[in-house]
Amino acid sequence: MILLLIACLVFTQTPAQSSSVDEKSQQIIDRAIETLGGQKYLGVQTVIGKGFYTSYKDGISQIPARFLDYIAYPDRERTEFMGAGIRTIQTNTGDSGWMFDGAVKKISDQTPAQVEDFKQAMRTSLEYLLRGYWKKEGGKITYVGRREAGLAKRNETIRLVYPDDFWIEYEFGAKDGFPAKIIYKRERKDPDSGDMVQVTEEDQLFKFITIDGVTAPWVIDHFINAKQTSRVNYESVQYNQRFADNLFAKPADVKSIK
């Protein structure tokens, strides 16, 4: 699921879920927000993105599929894929979601695991950090330090830890303030054995482009245990465009899909 820009709403913190961020980390976050557009970045409420999604197998890229992605903040997303003449749709709204499989012309509810994958993608996203969503869950952010990031380049690293001990590390360019990497560990089913194993996942962010004063990465590479598994490459992005709410509603039947 593609999840590059999450909502502008900053959730209200409750007493039972106190959050905190140290001074150095807050400075890094503030600088990143300004680098990405400041108030224009924070003011984004909807995103329409088009481009190509490419999966990788054993380090080799497969045939890219076109995608069309709609995001309405804070928790709705619809992504349409078109590959080999087959259209598929994945749509999520909060704790629910549905799928359309064009190969068999079938609409179905998402499984609990698929919904959790969507929520996990939100929780680990750059926007969840920069727009303050982590505060609702009582997360705590601390400064980790600088890391080598290539020839004569270093990244500033901060770590977000939730009360359930799940953590995400975010790296930002020490010189330019641009977000560079997102790293976390999670449980996944091993495709060979079927067992649940812990893996390290990483997003690397590239090709930052500014549209209407808002800057975002147009190339996102995803890695599992240091092996690339996918690439998202945007061709166009539109911010704050209106679209109908029923775009996210589950259709009554296949004929109703638009």
CATH superfamily: Lipoprotein localisation LolA/LolB/LppX
Radius of gyration: 18 Å
Derived from helix and strand composition plus strand pairing, the structural class reads mainly beta
What is the architecture at the second tier of CATH? Clam
* CATH class category label: Mainly Beta
H/E order of the elements?
A: EHHEEEEEEEHHEEEEEEE
Number of helices: 4
- How many domains make up the 3D coordinates? 1
How many angstroms separate the termini?
20 Å
Which percent band covers the strand fraction?
Answer: over 45%
Q: What gross morphology would you assign?
A: globular
Give the low-confidence spans.
3-16
Structure description:
The chain starts with 19 loop residues before the first strand and ends in a 19-residue tail after the last strand. The protein contains 4 helices and 15 strands. 14% of the residues lie in helices and 48% in strands. The protein has helices at residues 23-35, 39-42, 112-124, 126-130, and strands spanning 20-21, 46-57, 60-61, 65-72, 76-83, 86-93, 96-101, 106-109, 140-148, 154-161, 167-173, 179-189, 196-211, 214-224, 227-239. It is mainly beta. It has a 15-stranded mixed beta sheet that branches.
Topology summary:
Elements: E1 20-21, H1 23-35, H2 39-42, E2 46-57, E3 60-61, E4 65-72, E5 76-83, E6 86-93, E7 96-101, E8 106-109, H3 112-124, H4 126-130, E9 140-148, E10 154-161, E11 167-173, E12 179-189, E13 196-211, E14 214-224, E15 227-239
Parallel strand pairs: 1-9
Antiparallel strand pairs: 2-3, 2-4, 2-15, 4-5, 5-6, 6-7, 7-8, 9-10, 10-11, 11-12, 12-13, 13-14, 14-15
